[in-house]
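Archive entry. Fields below.
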Amino acid sequence: KAGVTQTPRYLIKTRGQQVTLSCSPISGHRSVSWYQQTPGQGLQFLFEYFSETQRNKGNFPGRFSGRQFSNSRSEMNVSTLELGDSALYLCASSSDGYLSGNTIYFGEGSWLTVV
Amino acid sequence: GENVEQHPSTLSVQEGDSAVIKCTYSDSASNYFPWYKQELGKRPQLIIDIRSNVGEKKDQRIAVTLNKTAKHFSLHITETQPEDSAVYFCAASMSGTASKLTFGTGTRLQVTL
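PREDICTED_STRUCTURE:
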């Protein structure tokens, strides 16, 4: 079965702009979470959506937001982009996301460069 | 919140040798500990995981051990091969927020011929 799919794979944006990233989870998975990966900060949890509701949130400013649709597909948005937002944004899906032990699968990520 | 420390940050071994990566966690409520391998430009891929009710788990050349009392867990790779070269991340999570993985800082493993 198809894995986690993210689009676009690469994008370049200018400071002050906003960006929307998309994620399609593995079929049947209802939990979608987002992570930011940078050389300096490593892999950091942004937020998690389950049944169209944000269930968990990391320590990121309100410029980072997301949503989930009824088919479990998710989008994340970053407004007023800053140079420090340049990162690999990873989407992950799992069947439940609540009970520990459900495998979390990552997509290939969206490489965002802010200039 | 949870904090995961990972050591070493880089590790170079000769082909055929063993490699060990160690992680410690701070929150005793954490009960799931996966290990991910990330090759350059690729997604993190789960290679092995362990739950808090188990002390050790093996999968061919890879094993993970967990010491709940000391709050640390380790990845062991035996008979290393060049294709094992990658960055390895440990992580921790707990029930209720299972999708919120707290990652270690990563270990860059290089297997030389």
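CURATOR_NOTE: The two ends of chain B are 41 Å apart (CA to CA).
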